Amino acid sequence: HADLALYQSKGSGRNVVHFFNPHLKQKASFELQLEEDLRQALQQDSGLTLFYQPIIDLRSGALSKLEALVRWHHPQHGLLTPERFIAIAEANGFIDQLDNWVLRRACIDLNSLDHMGYPGLKIAVNCSALNLANDQLPGRIEQLLNSTRCPAHCLELEVTESALLSNINRAIGLLENIRALGVSLSIDDFGTGYSSLAYLRRLPLDTLKVDRSFIQDVAHSSQDREIVHAIIAMAHALHLKVVAEGVETAEQLAFLQERDCDQVQGYLFSKPVPLEEIVARFPPHYRPLERVAARS
Ligand code: C2E
Ligand code: MG
Ligand code: MG
Ligand code: MG
């Protein structure tokens, strides 16, 4: 049994793991193969793709942004979500390449969206913690915006709290340079890291995204309702827009509207889907909020 073998190996030293536990060895070579495949996918620009999830504005009822969420069509394992491969790229020193690929793709898609009649629609792209330690990031983004002729104000970068903690002063400098390009910034999964309100104030942010774990139980937990309410009030006091992540039910939506949340994202509106499907289901000038409200 794999769990048992793992348990035993913990007490008996590292070398023994490989000798006694064929499961772990198998896993190691599986991960190695995946790493190799991912490098190749990046090099050959084959298999990686972006899915998009709508972010809806609660005041206008319109589509406000799309969050780009990377997917990998693996030749043997099928469609893989980021949990399966982001860590591999991070651990092996090519997350910058991956996030660069995502940024380029997002800029290209922004241009297509503009041509299809979605002027001003923004795309939000996730940025790995590791890339925020790379001083070349602002320059790279600038270059990318120039070469794709993509307007900076259509791009938003999502960073997590953990990304900022390791070297806060450096991260602030980097983010300021990125924001100076005209790119917006949001803090992702807010509330899950060791958020310090002191530094939140110092970051050049536009948007705060409340983590899904706080939204999940607002219908049943008065404590969670109070937490979300407090986060929204605090964010507004700092002049930040608030996006609620993981909105799945009409009750959650109603609560967020009542508490003056700015935008929502979640399965209630759509899962992350290919761009074609966004275009088919969310045509320009469509008001997804009215449709969802009518349904419930
Ligand atoms: P995230 O940025 O917080 O993205 C939201 C995640 O929650 C997505 O998972 C999305 O599919 C999921 N989600 C959205 N709405 C709902 C909902 O209503 N209910 C539930 N249960 N889940 C919902 P996904 O696509 O698997 O991405 C996971 C994480 O991987 C992202 O979390 C982000 O941190 C990371 N990631 C995604 N794309 C990239 C990328 O291009 N670069 C980097 N560095 N990280 C990425
Ligand atoms: Mg995100
Ligand atoms: Mg998030
Ligand atoms: Mg998340």
From TrEMBL:
<feature type="domain" description="EAL">
    <location>
        <begin position="31"/>
        <end position="286"/>
    </location>
</feature>
<protein>
    <recommendedName>
        <fullName>cyclic-guanylate-specific phosphodiesterase</fullName>
    </recommendedName>
</protein>
